[in-house]
Amino acid sequence: MRSQLRTTLIAYAFLLPALVLMGVYTFWPMAFGTYLGFARYNVITPPQWVGLDNFRELAGETDFWTGLSNSLRYVLVVPIIQLAAIGAAVLVNRRLPGIALFRAAYYVPVVTSFAVVGIMWGWMYDQYGPVNWVLRGLGLLDRPVNFLNRPAVALYAVMFVTLWKGFGYYMVLYLAGLQSIDRTYEEAALIDGAGRWTVFWRITLPLLRPVILLCSLLSTISAIKVFEEIFVMTGGGPAGSTYTAMYYIYSKAFQDFRYGEAAAASLVLAVVSLLFSLLNFRYVRGGQVA
Amino acid sequence: MRGDGPAAQGRAGAAAAAMGAARATTRASLVARGMRHAEALLVYVVLVAVAITTIYPFVWTVVTSFESTGAVFQFPPPLWPRQPTLRNYRTVVETVPLLRYLLNSVVITAGGVLGSLVVAALAGYPLAKLRFAGRNLVFGAIVATLILPNEAGLIVNYITTIKLGLLHTGAGQYAAVVLPSLASTVGIFLMRQAYLAVPDELLEAARVDGATELGIWWRIMVPLAAPSVAAFAILQFVAFWNSFLWPIIVLTDKSYYPLASGLLDLQGQFATNTRAIASGTVIAMVPILAVFVAGQRFFMRGLEGAVKQ
Predict the structure, then answer these.
(1) Chain A residues with beta carbon closer than 8 angstroms to that of B127
(2) Which of A67, A175, B139, B206 could form a disulfide with A248 if both were Cys (CB 3.0 to 4.6 A apart)?
């Protein structure tokens, strides 16, 4: 008995730093953040319970709705980035000379800060910049466009940067998934006369399903919370066309110091991302092949 | 000899058939090999096209940072500076405290990586190898942080940082940046996973020999988990080196900015001097790319390890 108590004490001694830090910076924010959503707070005086007032105010704010709808539109990047990542993983999974170089090249944007990436793409998208040069050379554009200054395209231009920076990350995860698949399934199907495309579609992809679920969950959650690339590239503009929910939360909290309203918006966004996670679970689980 | 006729014929026929078959196989395999070559070529074309897309913005930035004169945007965009110069680097280092930012980044990254390694390496041990009251509860709570959305984290952590008095205290500002990301759930999982692979007999033997739990952890568990430690260290290096949003929110004194945050500030100040900003951008990305090139294998493995729980 005494040694059992001793073990428990030792165990918690090992866990102490992690539990204290998580308590302060993870669990407390979840609890206090939820409470703040129903309170008025300015840091100096104690928070004051105001019920649903913050949410009512949110509902009346155009900025909030603009942000929320842009955040939802941003989810469009999820299927595209996942397809790109799966495609890249299949390509770099081959044993070809120099393949490690390509893997590295696709991963370089992943390890680069959004501060750097955002600034670089500002130049790429400039109306005299390389993207215009390429698109005009291909005959896809007849006059120069500053992509980040056009309300109609700015959000999609930022989305492309998210795709560009992020697909290498998911590619590595899919690569791990592909390499953990037992080769015998695919080989057996090939011997039975199945084409390579059929094998990919009927065997590889279904076996990859757990990784697809994980990756699409991760990318949905970060799409709904998109902020850093917007902060660096457009600042929510032009004309609010890239203003997302997280941008709203940021400016409410850190520019207007209206913590209660910002927390309320955070709660709404948390519920939305939870809903999308559940949807993801159903959708990706749904088509399960027996 | 009569008897030989059919047999010989048969033999000849078989040989001919075999030769024909062989020829057919060769042709089929030639076609197959040709198709394989064509396919490999196609794969390379796609691979190269994507690689150009991912690498080109970096090339453009580096070239621009070394350009001395002329318009910033040229057609076609240059692949090499016409008259390479270090002038832009001098301009940016002289006007912006980039070296100070670099030092801040080093302090923040070193503290963050070391701290989060220690926290995760400690926490993973009891979760993998000790039986204690509340283990499932603790583990469940840690897992929950992965699933529960915490969008309000930014706001509350900011308030907490103010209340802890970390905002105006010199070195406290480094702590303000590092502390919220020190306890990494992914890190705890990675370490726990690595410890689970260590056989219990090894620990029992050490206990019989009178080793303390801390001694077992430090002398047996941590060394045996070295590959996971390295992988997690690199993942954390990237995370801490690249962070800029939280530092901008929490640091009132810009002289504590890490490079990435300083870079954004630079962009605001120098909106028109593209070449100076490009030089600052190169300075900010060289260290992380160097670490990436050196630790590429661990990066990929670390990421894979983080998924396979």
Answers:
(1) 15
(2) A67
